[in-house]
Amino acid sequence: MNKRLVRPTLVWLIILVILPLPLLWLLNAGLTDSFHNLLIYDLGLLAYTYWLTIVYLSTRPKWLERWLGLPKMYLVHGLLGVCALALALLHSQLSFSMQRWGVLTGWLALYLAIGGVFYAAFFLSGWLVDYSPRAAKLKKRLQRPFNHRVSLWLHRLNFVAIALIWFHVHLIPRLYQLTGFIIFFDCYTLVAVAAYCW
């Protein structure tokens, strides 16, 4: 099989299936609930795992850049952001909770994620501006106030969203009681944040 096809397929398989699998298994094995409710939790968990992967990919790991190539790595980064946002939106629309702080942290994280994805699609990629002269003209006008330094700080709002999601999960008593799940959940978060900081 063609190497150019095998490598991206393998990367997608690892990111979409293998990475979230331990968390999904621990959650579904430890939590007794209806299929519908477990699916809602799974959607949120997948979105969070993908978001952490995006943070790791933003560090531009040299081994992956050499193995996959920078353009394909950016493509994975961008598509994964859209995928994570779609899953988070599904999770938010299907879920219901009476816990005020859990709901608040979830919605705040979702709004930050929506803003981040739209900002990245407009300013950091050619997804919109390459196909719309009006969008290209608007981007050119806005590039001065939204310079590189502002872009970096806006990009770092992803960490605020990750912190809010972390609190969101920890504020759900049924999930917090699943010790193995919470330990893995915290480890995933710590690894992604540490990789970015390092």
Report a brief summary of the structure.
The chain is mostly helical. It has helices spanning 3-18, 21-30, 35-57, 62-68, 70-94, 100-124, 133-142, 148-155, 157-170, 173-176, 179-197. The model has no long low-confidence stretch (mean pLDDT 85).
Task: Tell me what you see in this structure.
- The chain has helices at residues 3-18, 21-30, 35-57, 62-68, 70-94, 100-124, 133-142, 148-155, 157-170, 173-176, 179-197.
- It is globular.
- It starts with a helix and ends with a helix.
- It is mostly helical.
- The mean pLDDT is 85.
Layout of SSEs?
Layout (H helix, E strand, L loop, with lengths): L2 H16 L2 H10 L4 H23 L4 H7 L1 H25 L5 H25 L8 H10 L5 H8 L1 H14 L2 H4 L2 H19 L1
Category by helix and strand content: mainly alpha
| Tally of helical runs | 11
Q: What value does the Rg take, in angstroms? A: 18 Å
State the separation between the terminal residues, measured CA to CA.
36 Å
Largest sheet: none
Mean pLDDT: 85
Q: What is the succession of H and E elements?
A: HHHHHHHHHHH
Low-pLDDT stretches: none
Shape, principal axes of CA atoms: globular
The number of strands is 0
Percent helix, as a range, is over 70%
Which percent band covers the strand fraction?
Answer: under 5%
List keywords for this structure.
198 residues, mainly alpha
